[in-house]
Design brief:
Layout lengths: L4 H10 L2 H8 L3 H15 L4 E2 L6 E2 L1 H25 L8 E6 L1 H18 L4 E6 L2 H9 L5 E4 L8 E16 L15 H6 L19 E5 L4 H12 L5 E6 L2 H9 L4 E5 H6 L6 E4 L7 E9 L6 H9 L7
Parallel strand pairs: 3-4, 3-5, 7-8, 7-9
Antiparallel strand pairs: 1-2, 5-11, 6-9, 6-10, 6-11
Helix pairs in contact: 1-2, 2-3
Length: 315
């Protein structure tokens, strides 16, 4: 019944016999015949050929679910076989948001790749929600993120903590009255901004100025709104964005005040047209975790990455 499942699965992915045939390098009649043989063995049609694009029947949906389970088992077994060697083959798949993929993960991956040059290491960059689904589905092995994910589904290891800070364009006149709260960029980079000598700024001082906020599906956006609510502050929102880096860039252009993580500020090229301030809220502090799926097979590559990189990293 599952002999020939690769033909069915390719048609399912492409929703087209012609596209699937091209991908498989076989003729369309040959592909159709292979799919028909599988359908004859099941006793039911897998595809509803009357719809455009092609869709699955009820039996087809169950069949594809079973195929994906088989493929997952095969991947686990391949991972096990890879462990039999000395990591002269195998793969490691890591995921991270745009920020982590740009600023945090590259040196980690480079270090690990130098030790195991034969490993195929891939980095998936996407929104957190997409990456969480990829981790759950086994499409990536590790996820680096600052969100609190379900610990019933995922194991995790904390590699550091960061704080959200305010970036305020130097052109905003309010800065002249807030000199004692301002944090030098060097203090952010070396971590000394955490000292009590740097006091949190009263958020209400910025009530007459525009803010740049991330959407609340983003942890930074969600925390920003919780901080505002906790401090009974109603920001004048000029921009609603998806990426922290974009918010930082727009703030640097002088268009508004942004909530930006200290990790980005300590790594991004220095901009001399911003002032930085601490926030008086527990929501401004968050942990950075590596996540992996519970109860999955831990490959040798994953084990070595955890031992050499994850457990040795402190941001």
């Amino acid at each position: 019944m599952f002999r020939g499942m690769e033909y069915v699965y390719e048609v399912y992915k492409e929703k087209s016999f012609s596209k699937a045939a091209a991908n498989l390098y076989i003729s369309q009649p040959s592909l159709s015949a292979n799919v028909r043989r599988v359908e004859e063995k099941t006793g039911y049609p897998i595809f509803d050929r009357s719809t455009k694009p092609l869709s699955l029947t009820a039996v087809g949906r169950r069949y594809i679910h079973a195929v994906e389970q088989i493929m997952s088992i095969e991947k686990d077994f391949e991972a096990f076989i890879n462990d039999m060697g000395e990591l002269h083959t195998g793969s490691l798949r890591i995921g991270g948001s745009s920020f982590f993929s740009s600023w945090v993960l590259p040196p980690m991956i480079s270090q690990f790749s130098m030790k195991y040059p034969a490993l195929d290491i891939s980095l998936s960059e996407a929104k957190s929600a997409v990456l969480v689904d990829m981790l759950k589905d086994g499409k990536i092995d590790f996820l680096l993120d600052n969100k609190e994910l379900d610990t019933a589904v995922f194991d995790r290891y904390c590699i550091g903590e960061e704080q959200l800070l305010l970036t305020v364009p130097e052109s905003f006149s309010v800065n002249q009255d807030l000199v004692r709260y301002q944090i030098p960029i060097d203090a952010i980079r070396d971590g000394s901004y955490r000292k009590a000598s740097y006091q949190p700024v009263p958020l209400g001082k910025f009530k007459d100025y525009p803010f740049i906020i991330l959407r609340t599906v983003n942890d930074t956006g969600s925390r920003a709104m919780r901080i505002c609510k906790e401090l009974n502050f109603h920001p004048d929102i000029a921009f609603v964005l998806d990426q922290q880096q974009t918010a930082y860039n727009i703030s640097s252009s002088g268009a508004g005040i942004a909530f930006v993580g200290q990790l980005l500020l300590s790594r991004a090229p220095s901009e001399n047209n911003l002032y930085f301030y601490k926030l008086d809220s527990e929501h401004a502090t968050r942990n950075i975790y590596f996540y992996w799926k519970k109860a999955r097979y831990i490959s040798r590559a994953m084990e070595e990455f955890a031992k050499n990189i994850i457990y040795e990293t402190k941001l």
